[in-house]
Amino acid sequence: MTAFDLRRVAPFDDEFRVVSCTGADLRAAVHDLSLADVCADAPEACFGHVSGMHVVWDDDRSTLCELSVGGDPVAPDQEYTLATVAYFLRTNRRLTAVGPGDVVDSYAGEHPLVATLATSVSTRRPTDGSNGRR
C-alpha cells in the first residue's frame, strides 16, 4: 500500500482533531462508523477506518460485539482519546457522540501525516483475525 492508496481513502486534506471522550462515547463513535444507518446492504468493506482498537461488529444485529484498546475492554466511564478529521466534528453527520467542544488537540492537514505513516509503518491489513465482522 502506498501513500497514494491511503490518499484515495481520504481525498480531502482536512485537519485532524483529537477529542477526549468516555468509553461510552467511544462505543457510540464506533457504532456511527459502522455505517449501519447508511444502507442495510452496505458491503462488508464499508466501515469507518479505525486504528489502535480491536473491533468486532455484528452486521446482522447492527451491534458492536467487542471493543478494546491496548488489549483492555473499553470501560464506559474511562477517558479515551480519539483522532478524527475536523469535518466529522463540524457536521455531526458521522460522529454524533463527540463534537467540537471535546477537542483537546489539533494537527495540520492529513495528507502529510498520511504520507509519513505510509512510508514509516506497515499498512497491511491484519490477517490474524484481530478485527472483524460477524
Automatic annotation (TrEMBL):
GO terms for molecular function: hydrolase activity. Gene3D superfamilies: 5'-Nucleotidase, C-terminal domain. GO terms for biological process: nucleotide catabolic process. Signal peptide: none annotated. Residues 2-90 form the 5'-Nucleotidase C-terminal domain. This is 5'-nucleotidase, C-terminal domain. It comes from Halogranum amylolyticum.
